[in-house]
Amino acid sequence: MSTALEAALIAEIMADGPLPLDRFMRRALFDPEHGYYTTSEPFGVAGDFITAPEISQMFGELLGLWAADMWQRMGAPEKIVLAEIGPGRGTLMADALRAIRRAAPQMLATGTVCLVEASPRLQAVQAERLAEHRVSFADRVGKLPEGPLLLIGNELLDALPIRQITMQDGELKERCVGVSDGRLCFVDEALVFETPDDMPDLKDGETFEISEEGRRLVEAIGTRLTVQGGAALFIDYGHGETAAGDTLQAVRRHAFHPILSDIGSADLTAHVDFAAMARAAIHGGARAFGPISQRDLLRRLGVEPRLAQLVAKADPPTRDALVGAYHRLTDPDRMGTLFKALCLTSPNMDTPTAYEPDDAFQP
Predict the structure, then answer these.
(1) What is the pLDDT of residues 321-357, one digit of tens each?
(2) FRET label pair with 138: which of 153, 172, 209, 243, CA 20 to 30 Å apart?
């Protein structure tokens, strides 16, 4: 099915030449009129994918307890800014605030809750979900309120555009999107931008992915933490060490989808290079811990005692659903190890909640 965005992109490429992959992804995902996140409802069973907060309330609750404990470790500052970037339908923050209200009510009484969300449509969904709470919105990180920050980003970095650099016959090429026989196709062109210093040596046929937007975002957050204090927790799927590999994929209705089909109606993602993100944060002045597996993060935050509490009060069908969600979130062959958690802190902060001194990232 050809989409309006696909037709527009074909016309532009025919007129101006192939689009570098990151520019194509930005249009496909965030085009103001036809982009995937601008127009679609991607979350949940009826959408295209299910994120951890939608799987179980335990996920958001435990991240709320992470934030409450970090706040207490920071000396319980009155002007704390609790923020989530890429908050989806507001499910994670709703569960987190419920846990914080029980564990550290004063944190909410004097602090500010802010969602970083550029989409007016999603802002409306989030505001409705969080109607009982005082929340504000910022369309980018740079517009967050001033003050010490506790930031959560779940499945955000994987949605940011990437470049792909390939080695073809001994020469580095830029993966672009062109047109052949009236249809979009991948083409390898001369390098459009410089390559980063941490790019590994590529063998012929290998591909290296660079999320320059992700690196800039994380570096900016690292600088913010360095200047104003606080911590940030990013949970996503990806690899712990920088390496070659082609991980770009499209997802639609919970199944893989051809990347260059139905542009604007399928999600595009790539695995996160957590080591590159950690180096970017350190370049911004922050410290980095991890990444550790999602399994380790949730277990260290107390997922098993929380599961036991919920199961004790549940009827048999609910109990089975809770146990199934626990395994989906933590089993090594499911989300447990593919998903990882990277924590960034201000340089003067001790080891963060759920991490150990040995988890400090070594550039």
Answers:
(1) 999 999 999 999 999 999 999 999 999 999 999 999 9
(2) 209
* pLDDT greater than 80 at residue 1: no
**26 φ/ψ angles, rounded to the nearest 5 degrees:** -60, -40
0.85 surpassed by pTM: yes
For the chain, the domains span: 37-157+214-237+271-346
Top-level class of domain 37-157+214-237+271-346: alpha beta
What is the mean predicted confidence (pLDDT) over 262-274? 91
Token representation of residue 126: 């989030």
**Omega of the bond prior to 20 within 30 degrees of 0, cis?**
no
| Residue labelled with tokens 């194509």 | 24
How far, in Å, are 122, 170, 232, 348, 353 from residue 70 at the CA level? 28, 49, 10, 13, 6
C-alpha 115/C-alpha 136 separation (Å) is: 6
